[in-house]
Write a structure and sequence with these properties.
200 residues; alpha+beta; 3-stranded antiparallel β-sheet; 23% helix; binds iron/sulfur cluster
Length: 200
């Protein structure tokens, strides 16, 4: 019987101790010391000392970027990616089609119709950037990059939005650039063989 009563006492007393702690915390609630309702509410970035001046350097995590205008569609970056999160589709264009040149004066020979990076898969290893012959895939940000505005929040409500699409060529342009060149006008010999040229 004594053990039974002791059990009831222990249950009630620990319950009231717990409720007392909760009550104390409730009484102390003031703006700023509870979990924020992110993303509607956001903490300000702490001004802690990380070894250099905030006003001169970026302190955010880097992010992968690609400059499609300089891409030659060689696919070296996609092959280097250990998690296969770069998807490139290229199209061959007829000989003589002018696709322009890159910043390094390399003549572009392939049309890059799709260049997607799935940032939900990317692990920021940077391995894709090294083999690029045109230096057109690179990490932005980081302490040594040019100072840029705060953009540390890359979250998205929709996972699809984490697939960054860099290709800009339109279906109409693809059709125009891949169309076979017009047939040259028939030569006199060909016309004769087809009986189009009279002997008179
Ligand atoms: S940083 Fe790494 S994981 Fe991300 S795309 Fe480049 S190679 Fe792939
Ligand atoms: S390595 Fe560079 S040039 Fe080649 S496909 Fe990738 S981004 Fe384009």
């Amino acid at each position: 019987m004594a053990e039974y009563l002791h059990g009831i006492w222990a249950t009630l007393s620990t319950m009231f101790i717990g409720l007392g702690i909760t009550w104390k915390h409730m009484m102390r609630i003031r703006k700023g010391n509870v979990t924020l309702q992110y993303p509607e509410e956001k903490w300000p970035r702490p001004e802690r000392n990380i070894g250099f001046d905030f006003s001169n350097y970026n302190v955010i995590r880097s992010r992968l970027h690609q400059s499609i205008d300089d891409c030659i569609g060689c696919m070296k970056c996609a092959r280097a990616c250990p998690v296969d999160c770069i998807t490139i589709e290229i199209v061959k264009v007829p000989k003589g089609t002018d696709l322009g040149t890159t910043s390094n004066d390399t003549k572009k020979r392939l049309l890059v119709k799709r260049f997607d990076i799935d940032m939900s898969e990317c692990m920021y290893c940077n391995l894709c950037t090294y083999p690029c012959p045109e230096s057109c895939i690179f990490m932005t940000g980081g302490p040594n990059s040019e100072k840029h505005p705060l953009d540390y929040e890359f979250s998205e409500y929709n996972r699809e939005n984490l697939i960054y699409k860099y290709a800009t060529v339109t279906p109409e342009e693809i059709e125009r650039l891949t169309a076979p060149p017009p047939e040259p006008p028939p030569t006199t010999e060909k016309k004769m063989s087809e009986g189009e040229v009279s002997n008179g």
